[in-house]
Amino acid sequence: MINIPFNKPYLTGKELFYIEDAVKKGKISGNGYYTQLCQKYFESKYGFNKCLLTTSCTDALEMAAILIDIKEGDEVIMPSYTFVSTANAFVLRGAKIVFADSRLDHPGIDEDQLESLITSKTKAIVPVHYAGVACDMDKIMNLANQYGLYVIEDAAQAIDSFYTGKDGIKKALGSIGHLAAFSFHETKNIISGEGGMLAINDRKFAERAEIIWEKGTNRSAFFRGEVDKYGWVDIGSSFLPSEIIAAFLWAQLENLEDIQQVRIAHWENYHQKLQEWTSDNLIQLPVIPSYATNNGHMFYLICKNLKQRTTIIDNLKSEGILSVFHYISLHRSQFYKGKNFNTVLKQTDIFSDCLLRLPMYYELKVEDVIYKITEK
Ligand SMILES: *Cc1c(COP(=O)(O)O)cnc(C)c1O
Q1: Whose CA is closest to 100, among 76, 79, 129?
Q2: Which structural domain, as residue segments, surrounds residue 138?
Q3: What's the pTM value of the predicted model, to 2 decimals?
Q4: 248 in ligand 1 pocket by Cβ < 6 Å?
Q5: Coil, helix or strand at residue 162
Q6: Are 249 and 260 found together in one domain?
Q7: pLDDT tens digits, 43-99
Q8: Fewest Cβ atoms nearer than 10 Å: which of 56, 159, 350, 371?
Q9: Residues 241 and 261 both lie in one domain
């Protein structure tokens, strides 16, 4: 029987070579040669003003919450259909999370609902580019400018994906909001085991971001010779990864184009070959709006109901193929419900019950999955 996992971390072959090199360089704590190499790569390739590698996307989101000075009682708007870290980062600083529903055609935040959720306490909007597909950033940035809000992109899944706004300029996801958080967790396209990055697009945050990153000290400025001693200047934590992680990441970045090409080809193969089967079974294929690109992060189906999804998962499992559902909406989580909020989000619930993710990884034999799905 075939055995197809849902995800399999892909190694380019040079990870151990660069790790060995990092060790030989004699400096394996953070912010060394490989950290700076990776950060510069992202800054020049995607136009981020400044990048800081972090130990996870969760950490990058926590840094963002500190940077925008979230205080007790501030409100932060985000989709309910997301990973817990999107919310937790702000809850840790005392924010009240206001959940928005998903779009009809996509699990991403319903941009048209946002304005009705803004109050005098709203401090930020956190759009999540689900499956690496852009939210409509023009709508979100216009609202943010109008009401004086920050936008923090949860770009955990959105590496190498783009948004083309009304001005016709194609911008990398993560380069549009004031701040953006990426993940290099082993389930993402580009990996380092655990890992992440904060992109700082609003220059006013650049200096303080570095301080928060380095445990609240001005150590980075000290090593650049900008101050003659370093000390405690702000709150902060240990958000930076070691050089060993950055060296691993560098091996991935050298192969980014190849990884992306292969994943997108898998995605397109699924999309094309499942047309007939999905329409026969009243299942929806993913939709990429005209302003967005597909980065091959995830291939999902929207089943007609929970029962159908469970049947497909079970059938595939019996064939040795692991397909999985995704988020349990945060507004229905034990943590949030315990706070007695009566939030009703219809679309979010549909995606919680009906969205099914098919295996997606570099070495996947996508034909095998397609064959097993459609032969029934
Ligand atoms: C993976 C993911 C995260 C968390 O990333 P970590 O690097 O594991 O902390 C946050 N948000 C979204 C939308 C994700 O997909």
Answers
A1: 79
A2: 15-253
A3: 0.97
A4: no
A5: strand
A6: no
A7: 999 999 999 999 999 999 999 999 999 999 999 999 999 999 999 999 999 999 999
A8: 371
A9: no
Element (H, E) at 66: helix 57-67
Comparing CA positions, the residue from 182, 179, 191 lying closest to residue 159 is 182
Who contacts 239 (Cβ-Cβ below 8 Å, separation ≥6)? 52, 54, 55, 59, 60, 62, 63, 212, 213
The number of domains in the chain is: 2
Partnered with residue 198 across adjacent β-strands are 52, 181
Under 8 Å between Cβ of 18 and 247 = yes
Ligand 1 centroid to residue 300 C-alpha, Å? 17
For residues 87 and 95, give the distance between their C-alpha atoms in angstroms, rounded to a whole number: 9
Closest-lying ligand 1 atom to the alpha carbon of residue 60: 9
Q: Give the phi and the psi of residue 145 in degrees, each rounded to 5.
A: -65, -40
C-alpha 83 – ligand 1 centre gap (Å): 6
- Say how far apart CA 159 and CA 128 lie, in whole Å: 12
Let me know if 5 is exposed, middle or buried by CB neighbors in 10 A (0-12, 13-18, 19+).
Answer: exposed
77 part of a folded domain: yes
